[in-house]
Write a structure and sequence with these properties.
single chain, 283 residues, alpha/beta, TIM Barrel, 12 helices, 19% strand
Amino acid sequence: MNSLSLQHNMQPTQPATDPGTNPWDDLGKVIDDALENQHFSMVYQPLLCMQTSKLLGFEALVRCQSPEFGFISPEFFIPHTEESGRIIPLGNWIYRTTLLDLKRFHQYGFSDLTMSINVSPVQLKEPGFYEQVMSCISELQLSPKNIKLELTETALIKDPQVVSRVLEAFMNAGVKIWIDDFGTGFASLSLLRKFNVDGLKIDKSFVDGICDSNEDFTLCSAIIAMAQRLDLDVVAEGIEDETQLQILSQLGCEVGQGYLLGKPNSFSKNLDIWSEKSIDLTA
């Protein structure tokens, strides 16, 4: 889910401040310190085929562990980095680290894995962003088709002409474009007319209620059916129990993401987990 993703299942920590001070001022210093001293890290949550449990790829999620404040939720630091412009150096570090880890996954034998990277509208409007990402992909000798850029609906409607040109360039190069948290914005359907995309991610809020809410069930069913008719791929995110998995699978959703299928873990932890599962399957 989203860039640097706002997806998380940990209690957010807000930086402490003295009375009368602006917490965002302190947060800016924390972010600068984290960038300088490598307090940011990447974790990767698996995306699985719901029919076979085959590992298809990962979504890259950024985390911040401050020595002074402890875990800082993306809910706090992502909006601040976008407002302050710090998303540019942070985003550059994220995509470079993530693409390097994808290369390492491929070198360890997971050659077909894809990597989903959340992108901010601020990054898309930054001159040279497309060239920098494609240069990194080329340098690492990765196939663009294994890279997915995820954007929220909000990102797409901010300066749509500029965003559209950049996304078209990525698509022409073979990079896949996905809409994250689909259905939560005000312009979901109109966006599909304005932008060429490869896939949709059903927001966790709909998946949460799919077992108990007729409205959420109907919305999930409609999104999946629409995606199929438009020849788009679809992923259901936030799957946390078997009933949700079964219902989504029966509705025709082929790919899932969520704690039931796999928690976000570091590169090394994921390598251990999925190497062991691969050995079990071939034993």
